[in-house]
Amino acid sequence: MAAATTALSSSSISMLDSSLEVDKLTSEIFSILETKFLFGYEDPKLSLPQIPLQDMRSGKHVTGKVRILSIDGTAATDGVLAAKSLSHLESSLRLKSGNSNARISDFFDVVAGSGVGGILAALLFTSRGGGAPIFTADEALKFVTENRKMIFRSSSGGVLRRMFRRSKNEKKMFRKVFGESTLKDTVKAVLIPCFDLTTRSPFVFSRADAVEIDGYDFKMADVCLATSADPTVVGAIEMSSVDRQTKIAGVGGGVVMNNPTAAAITHVLNNKQEFPFCNGVEDLIVVSLGNGESDFGAGDLTSSPARRAVQIAGEGASDLVDQVVSMAFGQSRTSNYVRIQANGNGKFGKKFNNSSIGDKKNLLSLAEDMLAQKNIESVLFEGKRLAESTNLAKLEVFAGELIKEQERRKTSILPTVALKQGSPSSPRTSSATTLSTTSSY
Fold first, then answer.
1. Residue of 114, 154, 288, 318 marked active site
2. Which long-range contacts (CB under 8 A, 24 or more apart) does 377-384 make?
3. What average pLDDT does the segment 277-284 reach?
4. Which helix (H) or strand (E) holds 174?
C-alpha cells in the first residue's frame, strides 16, 4: 500500500510539473498573439511556434531573462570606478566561461550609459565592420584614466578658451577612436542620454530609433561629446544626425539622467518588438554601476560652485533611482539586481579631492579600495543597511548569473531577444521598435 502511495505521489508530481510547463508555454503563446494583435507585424520568427509535445514536457526553458548593464555618469571618480568594475567583470566572465576572448557585450542585451557611462557604453558596444566591439574592458579603463582630465576637468584660462580647447581636442580624440561609426554600428541595444537645449527636454540616443526611423542615427563620436558635455565648463554641443534631418544642442547626460537604470528597464518592458517575452522585473538581470560619491565637505578646489551643484544633484538622483529600482525588484533584488557603488564614508572623497588625483596609479588604487567596500543598499520595507558582500564579491556572483543565463538560452524554446537589423526607412508604429528583419538571441 505504501509503495502504491509513493508511486501515485511521484506520478502526481510529474503530472503537475508537466501541467505547469504547458501552462507557462500557453501563457507565452497568448503573449505572441497579443503582440501580433497590438502591433500587427508578420515576422515569421514570432509567429506561433511549432513546438513538439516532448519539448513541452522536457523541462526546457521557454525563454530567458533580458540582461541589462547600466553605467552612471560622472561622480567622484570620473568614471574610473565603473571602468574598473567592468574590467573585473570581464575578467571574471572570461575565467568562468573558459573563453579568453569573451567581451562584456557578449553577456548583455542592453546597455545604458550617461556621461562617462555613455562613453564606456560606446567603447564596449560599438563595432567596426560588424566585428567585435572596438575596445575590451581593460582598454576602456585605460582610455578613461588617461583622458579623464581632457574630458571632465576644466582647463586654465577663460570660458572661450576652455570651450575652444575642449571642442577641438576632445572631438579629435573621439573621431580617432570611433571613426565614422554610428549608433547603427552598436552590437546590442544602446541608450545614451543628454539634455537638448533646443527643445529644453531630455534626448536619448537609441540604437532602436537609429535603425527604425530616419533622422535618429548619430555618429558615436558626437554622441560621446554630447553626453559628457559639462554645461558649467563648455556649454552645449551642436550636432546633427547623419542625414542632417535632426539637430540638437546637447549637454551632459548626468544633468538629466545620471543613473539611467530606470530608463533602461522601462525601454525593455515597453519594447515588445525586441523583447517580446519580458513582462516584469522577474524577467530581468540588471547590473548597475556607480562612480563613487563625493565628500563635498573636503573642499574640492578644482570645482566651481556651479559644477559642484550639478554633481550633487546627479549623485542624489542616482541614489534615488537605485532605491526605487531596488524596491521594484522586491524579493528578487538579490538575484536579479546588483548595484556597485562606493559607500560614501568620506575618506575616499577626500583623497579624490586631493591634488594627487592626477596620479594614475593612485587613482586605480583608490578604485580598487572602493570595490573592496561593502555598499549601502536599500532593503524592502527596512530602509538601508550595509551589504553583506563587498562590491567585488557581488560582481563575481553576478558574473556567474550572466553565464548561467547564457547557458540557459541554449535550451530555451523561444528567443529572448529579437534585435532589429531592418531598413532605416521602416515606418514607426510605437515608442518601441518594430520588427522587420531580426537577429535572435
1. 114
2. 377/326, 377/339, 378/322, 378/323, 378/326, 378/327, 379/326, 380/326, 380/327, 380/330, 380/331, 380/333, 384/323
3. 92
4. helix 159-178
Give the distance, in angstroms, between the CA of residue 285 and the centroid of all CA atoms in the same chain.
11
d(CA 400, CA 394) in angstroms, rounded, equals: 10
Cβ–Cβ < 8 Å for 202, 226: no
Question: What's the CA gap between 215 and 79, in Å, rounded?
Answer: 30
C-alpha cell at position 402:
550572466
**Range with top average pLDDT, 382-391, 393-402, 409-418:** 393-402
Centroid of chain to Cα 153: 25
Q: Which whole number is the average pLDDT over 15-36?
A: 48
Q: What is the mean pLDDT of residues 132-146?
A: 95
List the one residue out of 357, 343, 327, 348 whose CA is nearest residue 394: 343
Q: CA 292, CA 348: separation in Å to the nearest integer?
A: 9
Mean pLDDT for all residues in the chain: 77
Q: Give the pLDDT confidence of 184-243 residue by residue, as tens digits.
A: 999 999 999 999 999 989 999 999 999 999 999 999 999 999 999 877 666 688 999 999
- CA distance linking residue 260 with residue 37, whole number of Å: 31
Task: Name all domains of the chain by residue range, CATH numbers in brackets.
Answer: 66-411 (3.40.1090.10)
Whether 114 sits among the annotated catalytic residues: the reply is yes
Q: Are 105 and 441 in contact (CB under 8 A)?
A: no
What is the residue type of 129?
A: G
Work out the average pLDDT over 153-165: 43
Residue 393 has pLDDT above 80, yes or no: yes
